[in-house]
Write a structure and sequence with these properties.
alpha+beta, 5-stranded antiparallel beta sheet, 16 helices, 31 strands, globular, binds 2-acetamido-2-deoxy-beta-D-glucopyranose, binds zinc ion, VWA7_N, VWA7
């Protein structure tokens, strides 16, 4: 973006400015207003109360919060698209924006009915952004205000029985006024003419370009739709016509005075639209899954609650059968918040990159290596084709076993795949030829309700009490409440309630002559809901922090954001090596001012990102005064290749799309990077070049052309952009987007209410008389 002289002045005067901010960034300071995320979350809490409030003892669970966050984040990310005015109801794009809302609600319902709840939530989030922007960007609130009508939502917004038609291109809607400059707030409060519905034009949206100087603008320092063509003096004197109510800060929002009224209406509209256009249209069970009331399936019971999605159980059995070992069924279960199994076959590097990136997050990968033939003949170590390494980077294990131990393998996977477990210790290390002992100390706190210790590549391990004596529960307790499962070189030891060791710091001692992995996990109310390195995205005045889709850059202090559920004190984050040694305490990452209702938010800069792989830990003291420890099982690898891909929200079947990926070599030597792009729907058509040579510090780019084929399944999908260095480490970036059905024209025959912008005054009059329209 070209920064005008004016906008250079403005941000300096107010420091960091954020507007109708998509993220809950208040904690960062200097933000005034009610963000898209807050609006979405407040609406969800009210909806839960409406739907489930009658159930005694019902409170939002972590699952509800995760579902809500998926919706809220998809909403916020829409601001990364600055070019399509109909996403924001800009430039009188009423008809297109209304069509978009109708289409997205239909998509969301179709995705939920097909069991793709993640795609459904993303579609809802994207629609909510547009719905909420209507109130901040149109003149509806101004018209109500002038008529002296009470605040109410615009009838039919996002409903398929209603269409909204804009005024003609030449119809004048705004008068000139002085815009805010530095500390002067301007005088644009009353610049909208009449009662007709209009919305502000925003520069850089080619389909909705301002054609008449008497149309309203969005306003604010980054919108050039008013100032283009004016000389410098005119720019200073009146940059008028802005009407946005995005924030309560006048520099950004000429109609800041109406901000909270617009935002409250946006919340009311969100509640109305989600309830009527999504929730009420779904079977109860699907509606419950979608908004997080239930977990997607009952893993203990193994009975499918949702008949259309595969269970992990089915998947496990299938994936162990050789003829079913291909990438496709693997990818199908990855959308669930469960652990993932893959068979250690020789899959193409790009396929592995896709699985590696997809697993990420809070799931673990168990790579399954099956020996065939007579068990006694299998003495050579098998080739795991690199899957063992991928398993350990996610906190999982490589399971090597003989074909006839398949039943044991399934039992082992059952023991370790506990969806509600939090990680307490996650270690990967190399043993020694002499089978030396390694020791780790870890706390068990009173919130731990079940415990699993699992290892792979270990010949034996032993547990010691805080006082140093070996831990040995009574025979009765041991037989009834502990369970040992072994397959090949992997062991899992499970403890349930009475057999869980009492709170304290325990020591585990293990022997291994090979590389090994160790995981200690348990069920607990203290859990890390999210932890990520963050970057800024979004349109200039709507910026927010989102997870970086690639590896953090070695040596940089990256912004960190995290949410942790539960009650605790003396908490701190730490980076540790994958062998468990402390690298650095993350003293800058601290509790943020406004915690989410059911979780505490943390923000801050990390210490320098280590060059070697590391693991993130969170420690502190619980309500009962016990020390506790949690780990993010995903091991983090840093990179010295910066890889910047534009964030993708959605793609449409049959529509070509081009994305430009930028690379910067931060190593001090030149290197050639082999580049690739791979997605789970085979939509990548071609890359403009196979490799890029970069001098130290130099940047380059490549284009990726996509064409999602007509036979692809719609729904949530993923793409990995990667660059593999010949001499140095590469990097890769994962993005998830919704693949939408072909854009079909809307059926106008269902429309009952044709609402013309030039008749908005009459519409309000009828509403004031108590009529529906
Ligand atoms: C498993 O869940 C189903 C559906 O919720 C229920 O009907 C069934 O009784 C459960 N079975 C067991 C063994 O708990
Ligand atoms: C596997 O097969 C071997 C011999 O073929 C047998 O000794 C062993 O008990 C079998 N293991 C299982 C778990 O069936
Ligand atoms: C052990 O791990 C190291 C890297 O962590 C790897 O280079 C080595 O090949 C591994 N050894 C075996 C036997 O897998
Ligand atoms: C945290 O403490 C509050 C107040 O004591 C209590 O109501 C709440 O249930 C606790 N939360 C958890 C997750 O333990
Ligand atoms: C994080 O670091 C950047 C510079 O790298 C600095 O501008 C910013 O203020 C820091 N943020 C916090 C919360 O410390
Ligand atoms: C989809 O169609 C393309 C050609 O248009 C074909 O190459 C591909 O195999 C088809 N995929 C499926 C899953 O049918
Ligand atoms: C508003 O515009 C529509 C379409 O241009 C037109 O049919 C209608 O007569 C207009 N209404 C008024 C009150 O001018
Ligand atoms: C494709 C590729 O090379 N990906 C690399 C991205 O960077 C991380 C960290 O260096 C590596 O672990 C990946 O292999
Ligand atoms: Zn917007």
């Amino acid at each position: 973006m070209v920064i005008s002289r004016l906008s250079l002045v403005v941000p300096l005067a107010v420091g960091h400015v954020y507007g109708f901010i998509p993220d809950d960034l208040k904690a960062m300071g200097g933000i005034h207003g009610y963000s898209h995320m807050e609006q979405t979350k407040d609406a969800m809490f009210q909806l839960w109360d409406k739907w489930y409030g009658g159930t005694p003892g019902w409170v939002p669970s972590n699952k509800n919060i995760l579902a809500m966050n998926e919706i809220a984040e998809a909403n916020a990310l829409v601001d990364d698209d600055q070019e399509n005015g109909e996403l924001h109801f800009d430039g009188e794009s009423f008809q297109y924006a209304q069509e978009r809302l109708i289409k997205l609600s239909n998509n969301a319902v179709a995705f939920a009915n097909a069991g793709d709840y993640v795609a459904a939530r993303k579609s809802i989030g994207m629609a909510l952004h547009t719905l909420q922007d209507f109130y901040a960007h149109s003149s509806w609130v101004e018209a109500l205000d002038k008529k002296g009508a009470k605040d109410q939502i615009y009838p039919g917004l996002g409903y398929p029985n209603t269409m909204i038609y804009p005024l003609g291109e030449k119809v004048k809607t705004c008068t000139d006024c002085r815009a805010a400059v530095a500390i002067f707030c301007g005088d644009c409060d009353d610049n909208v003419r009449g009662f007709d519905l209009t919305s502000g034009y925003y520069s850089g949206e080619p389909s909705f370009r301002k054609r008449s100087s008497a149309k309203c603008s969005h306003g604010g320092p980054f919108d050039r739709s008013t100032v283009d063509g004016l000389n410098f003096l005119e720019q200073i004197l009146y940059v008028g016509q802005g009407i946005n109510k995005d924030s309560s800060t006048c520099i950004l929002s000429p109609h800041r005075i109406l901000h909270y009224r617009a935002a409250r209406l946006a919340v009311a509209a969100t509640i109305d639209w989600i309830d009527a256009r999504i929730y009420q249209r779904l079977p109860q069970l699907r509606a419950d899954y979608l908004f997080g009331k239930e977990y997607i399936f009952d893993s203990k019971n193994e009975t499918l609650l949702d008949p259309s999605s595969p269970t992990v159980w089915d998947f496990r059995k299938n994936s162990i059968q050789p003829h079913k070992r291909d990438l496709v069924p693997r990818a199908t279960t990855l959308g669930h918040k469960m652990h993932t199994m893959v068979t250690a076959d020789n899959v193409h590097e790009h396929g592995k990159a896709l699985v590696r990136a997809l697993v990420g997050g809070s799931r673990k990968l168990y790579s399954i290596q099956i020996a065939q033939g007579e068990p006694n003949e299998v003495s050579q170590p098998l080739d795991d084709y690199g899957w063992g390494e991928i398993a350990l980077t996610t906190g999982g294990h490589l399971l090597s076993f003989h074909e006839n131990e398949t039943a044991d393998a399934v039992e082992f996977l059952d023991a370790v795949s506990q969806p509600n477990h939090v990680e307490i210790l996650s270690v990967a290390a190399a043993g020694s030829d002499t089978n030396r002992e390694s020791e780790f100390v870890f706390p068990i706190d009173s919130s731990i309700k079940s415990l699993v210790i699992s290892t792979s590549g270990v010949s034996s391990f032993e547990l010691f009490n805080p006082n140093g004596s070996p831990y040995s529960p009574s025979i009765a307790l041991k037989s009834a409440h502990t369970k040992r499962t072994k397959v090949g070189n992997s062991i899992a030891l499970s403890f349930d309630s009475p057999a869980i060791p009492p709170p304290g710091f325990y020591r585990i001692s293990l022997k291994s002559s090979t590389n090994y992995t160790l995981s200690i996990s348990g069920e607990s109310s203290i859990s890390i809901i999210s932890f990520y390195f963050a970057q800024v995205a979004g349109r200039p005045q709507h910026q927010a922090y989102f997870p970086i889709p690639s590896s953090p850059i070695a040596g940089e202090n990256s912004m960190v954001k995290s949410h942790v559920h539960g009650n605790f004190t003396n908490e701190k984050f730490e980076f540790r090596t994958k062998e468990g040694a402390l690298i650095a305490s993350q003293d800058m990452v601290q509790r943020a001012i406004d915690p989410e209702v059911s979780a505490t938010m943390f923000y801050g800069n990390s210490s320098a990102i280590p060059e070697d792989d590391f693991v993130v830990y969170f420690t502190g003291t619980n309500d009962d005064g016990n020390g506790f420890q949690r780990a993010v099982p995903l091991m983090i690898s840093s990179s010295k290749l910066r890889l910047a891909a534009p964030m993708i929200q959605r793609m449409t079947i049959g529509e070509p799309r081009k994305l430009t990926i930028k690379l910067t070599n931060l190593n001090n030597i030149p290197d050639t990077y082999e580049v690739f792009a791979v997605d789970s729907k085979d939509s990548v058509v071609e890359l403009t070049q196979p490799s890029i040579y970069l001098e130290p510090g130099a940047s380059g780019s490549f284009d990726v052309h996509f064409l999602p084929s007509l036979n692809s399944t719609i729904g949530m999908t993923e793409v990995v952009f990667g660059a593999k260095g010949r001499a140095t480490k590469g990097n890769m970036s994962l993005q998830r987007f919704v693949l939408e059905p072909e854009a079909k024209p809307l059926s106008y025959s269902r429309i009952k209410y044709h609402q013309f912008a030039n008749e908005t005054g009459q519409l309000i009059d009828r509403l004031m008389m108590g009529k529906k329209r």
